[in-house]
Amino acid sequence: MERDTLKSIIEALLFVSGKPIDLDKFKEVIGEERSKIRDALHEMMEEYQSSAKGIEIVEVAGGYQMRTKSDFSEYIKNFFQMKPARLSRPAMETLAIIAYRQPITRSEIEYIRGVDSGGILRALLERKLIRIVGKKDVPGRPLLYGTTREFLELFGLSNIKDLPTLKDLDEINGESEILIEEKEQVVPERNDNNDSRR
């Protein structure tokens, strides 16, 4: 298959997909070798990044996705007239504990935080940033929590190993409240599969 044809097919698939597409799915649909698809994708990523286009192709959550460039987030927010959703400091704290310690139980989270976290866990579950990944093999069989693909996509991570180290975090000046701009990047509804566990 000609490289330009391959790139056009990839572009069309990325455009219609509401979630990241991995190389195996591309191979299944297109019927080309993974290496050729990967090379074409990386070439397209460079082309979109270096051009004056309003969209880009990013590698995220174990696949590739077409997104709007963050430079134009203000205009997209105006278009959708959406108010930014907020994750409070306690919610961010809980999410960070889960991300770094997963799989983890509610009691382990509350031991680290020192306060009840039931409400925050429910809110994070509703936003599909965390999910129940199983039960711990101890008396009472408490639920285990882990992060989701939505978590990876929201923070622009390919996988959970891309999280900054604790040393990196010490160098970052935290804010009292984190704003998550919904609709900053046009990403339709996704499934709740999670490949982010270590």
Keywords for this structure?
single chain, 198 residues, alpha+beta, three-stranded antiparallel β-sheet, 9 helices, 16% strand, disordered C terminus
Can you offer a commentary on this structure?
With 198 residues, this protein is an alpha+beta fold. It is 44% helix and 16% strand. The chain contains nine helices and seven strands, in the order αααββαβαβααββααβ. It has a three-stranded antiparallel β-sheet with strand order 4-6-5. Strands 1-2 form a two-stranded antiparallel ribbon. A hairpin with a 2-residue loop joins strand 1 (55-60) and strand 2 (63-68). Helix 5 (89-101) crosses helix 7. The protein is elongated and about 60 Å long. The two termini are 37 Å apart. The model is unreliable at 173-198 (pLDDT under 50).
What's the arrangement of secondary structure elements?
Blueprint: H1 3-16, H2 23-30, H3 34-50, E1 55-60, E2 63-68, H4 73-80, E3 85-87, H5 89-101, E4 104-105, H6 106-113, H7 118-126, E5 130-135, E6 143-147, H8 149-154, H9 166-170, E7 178-180
Antiparallel strand pairs: 1-2, 3-7, 4-6, 5-6
Short note summarizing the structure:
The chain is α+β, with helices and mostly antiparallel strands and 198 residues long. The protein contains 9 helices and 7 strands, in the order αααββαβαβααββααβ. The chain has a 3-stranded antiparallel β-sheet. A two-stranded antiparallel ribbon has the order 1-2.
